[in-house]
Amino acid sequence: MKLKPLHLLLAAILGSTLPSVWAIDPFTVRDIKVEGLQRTDLGTVFNYLPVKVGERFDDARATESIKALFSTGFFDDVRVERDGDVLIITVEERPTIAQININGSKLLEKDQIRQALRSQNFAEGRIFEQGVLDAAVNELKQQYFSRGRYSVIIKTQLTKLERNRMGVQFDISEGEVARIQRINIVGAKVFKEGDLIDEMALTTPNWMTWYTRTDQYSKPKLQADQEALRSYYLDRGYLEMAIDSTQVAISEDRESVYLTLNITEGERYTVSDIKLVGDSIVGADELQKLLEVKGGDVFSRQKLNKSTAAITDRLADEGYAFANVNAVPQLDKEKHTVSFTVYVDPGRKVYVRRINVAGNNLTRDEVIRRELRQLESAQYDGSKVKRSKQRLNQLDYFSEVNIDTAPVPDAPDEVDMNVNVVEKKTGQFNIGAGYGQSEGVVFVLSLSQNNFLGSGKRFTAEFNNSSANKVYSFSLLEPYLTPDGISVGYNLYRRDTDPGEMDIGDYSTSAYGGSVRFGFPTSETNRVNVGLALENLKLQTTGDSPKRVLDFISRNGDTNMTYTASVNWSRDTRDSASYPTRGMLTSLGAEVTIPGSDLDYYKTNISNQLFIPIYDTTSLMWNVDIGWGGKIGDSEFPFYKNYYAGGVSSIRGYEYGTVGPKDENGDGMGGTKKLVNNIELLFPIPGMKDDKSTRLSLFTDLGGVWDEDTDPSTDDLRYSAGVAFTWISPIGPIKLSYAKPFNAKDEDKTESFQFQLGNVF
Fold first, then answer.
1. Is 392 left (phi over 0), alpha (psi -120 to 50) or beta?
2. Quick one: DSSP state of residue 505?
3. What is the domain count for the chain?
4. Is residue 1 a part of any domain in this protein?
5. What is the side-by-side order of every strand in the sheet holding 153-161?
6. Where residue 39 sits, what CATH number does that domain have?
7. Domain match, 305 and 385 both
8. Measuring CA to CA, how many Å separate 735 from each of 78, 89, 245?
9. Do 340 and 205 share a structural domain?
10. What is the side-by-side strand order in the sheet with 398-408?
11. What proportion of the chain, given as a percentage, has pLDDT over 90?
């Protein structure tokens, strides 16, 4: 006897309560057959089937079997039939995804799209389910929404293939980027709405949003902007400020976004009192000095956070790595004052058991460990851990450096310091060009490796060519000749120069030479370098060469060999080498010829750059550069070693090298004495305050150059002022300036607009 099929879907809905017309007379299963399988293994079915040969089979077991097989997700339909004592299971398998095609994607790479699909369990080889496909399409839309493409349209086409397989095609119309057309802040009374909007990263379209893309809405950016607004109020005393709600409205064409933030400002609070409580370990007077918040001050969360962080860091310097410093407020809402009790719990003093280094696939362990100031088996010191991270970042071998301290199990007074780095490519092969108004077009070819074979050694082979200079050079630096950090560097070069192209004299030089230098660290920020160098230089004249050049050759010949010794002391406390906002860079140097040279002379240099933060992203830079040289004994100071001033990197508004004495041809001669002073107000481009590669500035420059027989005088100084733009671009630094010379003389060569593109040497 053969029963009518029992279908899974209805059985799953009705459970064990089946109509009597589907009743199965109980029987003992003698055999089980499975029909309809194409890809699924027979053993897989038996593994999920709750009935075995020899067991009793009835209505309840039939329902249970159908549910079990259907719940695997492998089948669209499951039927149970009986042929005598043989149980027959008939299944209809779901199709598998054989191929996925993606059309129309430009913003997202196809690999990114496939990864998003896989995150929803939709990939080739998986079983096709319409619900999973719908979830995958929704995930793709979210990927586009996060990039401001709210008008994206994603359509799918399904194609049935042989052997119960399915082809899926995604047709994507990415649409236009939705741009923020208006931002409203409702409830702002104390501060102007415009000032609050300026604190936000999101903006409406302006002249720079084609580059910054800050007019493209994203939820994470809006959340960050809400926190920025809270910080703005909390740093100005509004302790109870709250953002009640935000509304994001999208236009019908889904290409315009309108933001509204509803806020409650609350009252302004002042600090009535602040006191320290707990076992501070460090003297209370010392910790009190670390508090930036004082009684009577307007409350500032930023100052309070800096205070607690400073106390935490101070305790960490004494070995208390897990100190807990909490400021507990007590509000007086009637008087609008707040008092703080700062609870200090230093915890247990800890020691570093082991330092683990990870992520350095190329760089040797020793290259990393020699930069660490925190040592194994030593007391934990927070300042040394921070300095270790700074030194690793300054190597420029890694795109990311993270240092964390993990407690050692069963050893409460020990930690392991884990140093995790992400290496970046340190070798470069560059073919490029630049332009400088003083040198014209420059062609550059260079091969460099800052971390040769992971050893930390640096070498560079370079060739650059312009109308004024042609240079071949090779240099090698071993930063750790000794474990103490003594460095040694070597340099070989060949340089051909035509000063006539720069309007500083009708003659040319051809020189070759080399140098060796040693560096000695005297502290974490100070360094002394000493070196020896030799140079052979040949002068070539033309019919228009000035008398000073011809006279020099007649007295000293057209070829001179010099041997020089040099010493330099430098100190660098800047917070960044490429985008400094605070700190100082100071350099004192001297160079003198030694016996055996054809000419005897000396040169000294003093330079100092001071960066003072004014407000947030605005800083004041003060640069002073002084040079002084002269002859030794009866010798003569070589004119081609003169100091020069003028140009985009010196006194802007004057042509390169033309400030100071002139020869009979009107070309700049340079001199043995130089003074350059620059004062510059540095600030980000409006709408690009978070971009660390560009800067605008207002500047004033002054300086002068004097020859050997002339004493420096303020009457000879040249002045200028203007505006400048700097961009650290992928092809090298770009500098542009517009300056107005104040007291240019008739013989001076001026140029208001000056620029330099790319790497100019």
1. alpha
2. -
3. 6
4. no
5. 96-103, 165-173, 153-161
6. 3.10.20.310
7. no
8. 74, 79, 45
9. no
10. 351-358, 411-423, 398-408
11. 48
